Amino acid sequence: MSTDLSFALELLVSGLLVGVLYAMVALGFVLIYKASDVFNFAQGAMTFFAALALVSVLPRLGWPLALLFVVALMIALAVAVERLALRPLAGRPPLALAMSTLGVTFALGGLAQALWGTEPRRLSLGISAEPIQTAGILINRVDLVAAGAVAVIVAALIWFFQRTKLGLGLRAVADDHEAAMSVGIALRRVWVVAWTLSGLVAIAAGILWGNRIGVGFAVSLIAFKALPVLIIGGIDSIPGAIVGGLIVGATESLAEGFIGPLVGGGVQEIFPYLVALVFLMVRPYGLFGRPVIERV
Amino acid sequence: MLYRECGVYRTSYAQDAALFPLPADRLGTAALVLTAVLLPPVLGTYWLRGILIPFLVFSLAALGLNFLTGYAGLLSLGQSAFMAVGAYAGVILYGRYAVPLPLALLGAGLIAAATGAVAGTPSLRIKGFYLAVATLAAQFLITWTIQHVPWISGGVFATINTPTVRVGGLVLDTALRQYYLALTVVALLTVFGMNLTRSRIGRAWMAIRDRDIAAEIIGVRLLKYKVLAFVVAAFYAGVAGALVVFCWYGSANIEEFDLVNSVRILGMVIIGGMGSVAGSFLGAGFVTLLPILVSVGVHKAGALAAGGAANGLVSSLEDLIFGTMIVLFLVLEPLGLARLWKTIKDYLRLWPFPY
Amino acid sequence: MRKHLRSGSAVAGVAAILALLVASGPAPGASMGGVLTVPQPIYRTGAYAAGGSGFAGGREDYFALLNSRGGLDGLKVQWSECEDAYDTARGVECYERTKKDMVVVWPSSTGITYALVDRSIKDKIPMVTIGYGRSDATDGKTFPWIFPVLGNYWSQASSFIRYIAASVGGEQNLKGKRIALLHLDIPYGREPIPMFQDLSKQFGFEFRNFPLPAPGLEQSAAWVDMARRYRADYIIQWNFGQSCTVPFTAMHQVAFPIEKFMGVWWCGSEEDVRPAADLAKGYVTSNFTGVGRNFPVIQQILATVYKSGKGNIDEARVGTVYYNRGVIEAAVFSEAVHNGIKQFGLPVTGEKVRWGLEHLNFTAARLAELGLTGMIPPVTLTPDDHGGVSSAYFQRWDGQKWVRIPGLWQPYADLVRAQIAKSAAEYRNQKH
């Protein structure tokens, strides 16, 4: 294999594996947007909150109990956010709700650091860091496990939305708030469920990212990387988040490897957005997003 | 009875088209202008440099974004990048090419506006959240370009320092003079902006905001007015960016114009009130002042309660309280502080009578 | 009625805020009457909290030690903090709010440093930026109010080459080696590039930089590029905060040996490597202060301040990298104030402290007297040379703690000074 080709393959593989992790963060946004049309600024802070809570109780409780604790915590958080920050704003412009989640972002970040301190922590999954070598390409074990975990989570989510009553209710609410309420779906409960699901996804994302970069405040900045994923895939589509994540991961990796050296590097942030622009010109609501039909 | 709308008779077209037709508004505005001009000399440099100048700069950036988001209904997360363009353009024009300051400010605005025109073209096809994220392409492309082109960034620090700032023969080296420069620019652009929103352009924007297809059908050219909204927003941001350099930091440093700054400006518009000129100022005041107030309050209380040892905890609580207050204000007034202002006016209209 | 209540409460809220605002105006200065006030803008939350809290803890403990011995030349040191959240606007506001009480400012962030360059001149408050800030501030003629004192980025970059040269068996063996710089794509990360380029010309090694868009949390493409295509012999990271921790997992993915990986001193704290634990074992960084508790001054702090339960930081962090840097900042400050008082008497002013900094003379004997032996190399400043072109320590993470590597690595001072002269001239040109 020529060096350039194997280099490209290696970039592609590592990019795709990172893309899976972006998709994980993007999923959290999608779940909330689907049920409430709210862009949740707090998704990054939730990921940080979940990861920090987990590593803080892990030494005392051990994995099973610690996970249980964090799940309970995220459910409580979902209830609190719905009660305090969303319900009073129901029916207001979506931007006001988005702004409210920005307030939640600050509050959550402050709360997490007040409770558990600001020192970055370690979160180890106990998987060997040594890469697997296949056909001259190095593959990270942790990334493979992460990809597997994401596949399971996505399958579970799809099952939930297609097959359960609650999931169907969520889809109904996403289609039309008022129509859903008129057939007896409790809007408030649906919102709590959506935030809970998004909280659970945040736990998974927090674990995977924490294992990769350590658990510190910067985990909450990962959410920015999910933005191009959302506009490529469509902000209300679960498969869109996955496909978008893979596209973004591969694009930024290949762009940095091949275009970067020509222009002085540091382009991995830009290219996903340029690709997104091209996609949006063709499909203005992302690849899998639901187009809004406009009538006068 | 304090704020009366009755008894005002407009007898000419000029009166009808006046910016402040009500005597109460005229009086209020005059009082505001007088305060802004006369109070600062008494306040001292802390108030000027720590609070008022940042407030004016952010008000201008927020006002620009309000035309785009509040009036034309187009979301943007790129306002910070246009500030960066203005900051570097201003300091390069003034420092490297010795362009007089007023022209350098204008040039900073115009160059930013030109980039805004390019960044705004996708808005014809992309809408809402998708557009907001698409503007991030401009944000990252612009900051990358500024850093990687040595001619712009001035070399390895990617930071350009301003020479002594002069307007005519006057050296702007005191906080008070810097404040008056910022105030003059902001006042001029505010009046311009208020008139703009009442013009054909402003009405076209509002038509687009309310339903762009309907606007198109009644003959509003979408491309022209949408791009124009981006141009105006970027112009205001560019001038604000130049003011950052000339009146506030004294240097153009690319790190100050990041995505977080864009989110902050969007927050000002939403909290202040979309589609309201006054709201931009109220929002800028809220977002720049509240963290400082919370910090001062919390640390004073913390020092009383726990001494110095709990500083880390106290600082974290600061974020917690700031976030909670944003939610609280939105719950109280989801349409922004400008609506609150209107509520106060309604109250004063009747006071002291119950109805 | 409900509407009135609601708007009423909102009005009351606004009024309360205004009242607070009026009440929170700057307090009158108080550096007289046997008290020396030391306000500090500092960050204790967010991505860089480990640094801010460490600095503050070290400074405050050193002042507490002085106070327990009767103060600094008889003045009781009274410190305070202003939270700036590592945000430049907040930092400038903090500075303006507390500058009346300041005789020295520690910006503790690149952004705030740049924003205060002009102001500190006008306010006559010297700015001490040990280990960060503008590398060209060594030139005291161009930057009379800025004092790097120890270690600037160019000096540090050249010490890295000195260190690598030693580990490959001499400068002649540098030829043909490939050295990669992995850096945040912000002014701080780009600052060392021209220095490395000059050095590569002089010694014939190859150099390439690999920028990471801030905050630099996703590095796998850069690592594949550095390790698999460029095939770097050495990689130096120039990051900050959590982007310092990411390489320890990323380098394993491309099977890059940790012995060939080094870090800037802002990637050299316990907080940077602990999240990677044993993956970081063997990692080397530079430093401008000694690490650990094995210094007289730290022992004295533990024996007096912590014995009486008056510590300003979690006791476990005493002797860590950021903490020791805070101690050194406070020690430099105290010595400058001491010099100023000795020369001009009370009251202490920014101008007197500037003179004190310009005549800072930390000889080995003076360092021993202050209990600082081994924490910093001896350093002497002059009005023209504000320090910064100084030798660096190197330290290795053993999985549990930092261990200093014996020796002091000199910078290639001629190259560094040439770069400083060039950059300072450019600055003067910008300022006309």
Folded structure, characterized:
The complex is a heterotrimer of chains A (296), B (355) and C (432). In chain A, 72% of the residues lie in helices and 2% in strands. Chain A has helices at residues 3-36, 43-61, 63-86, 94-116, 141-163, 165-175, 177-182, 187-213, 226-233, 238-263, 270-282, and strands at 132-134, 137-139. Chain A has a two-stranded antiparallel sheet. Chain A is globular and about 65 Å long. Chain B is built from 16 helices and 4 strands. In chain B, α4 crosses α13 and α13 (259-272) crosses α14 (277-306). The longest helix of chain B is centred in the C-terminal third of the chain and has 30 residues, at 277-306. The model of chain B has no long low-confidence stretch (mean pLDDT 89). Chain C is α/β, with parallel strands linked by helices and 432 residues long. In chain C, 43% of the residues lie in helices and 15% in strands. Chain C has helices spanning 2-23, 49-68, 88-98, 110-123, 153-167, 187-190, 193-203, 220-229, 247-253, 270-273, 296-306, 321-344, 350-358, 364-369, 413-431, and strands at residues 35-42, 76-83, 127-128, 146-147, 178-184, 206-212, 234-238, 261-263, 284-287, 361-362, 379-380, 392-397, 402-409. In chain C, the strands form 4 sheets. Chain C has a 7-stranded mixed sheet. In chain C, strands 1-2 form a two-stranded parallel ribbon. Chain C is globular. The model of chain C is unreliable at 1-8 and 21-31 (pLDDT under 50). Chains in contact: A-B, A-C, B-C. The interface between A and B is large, with 53 and 46 residues.
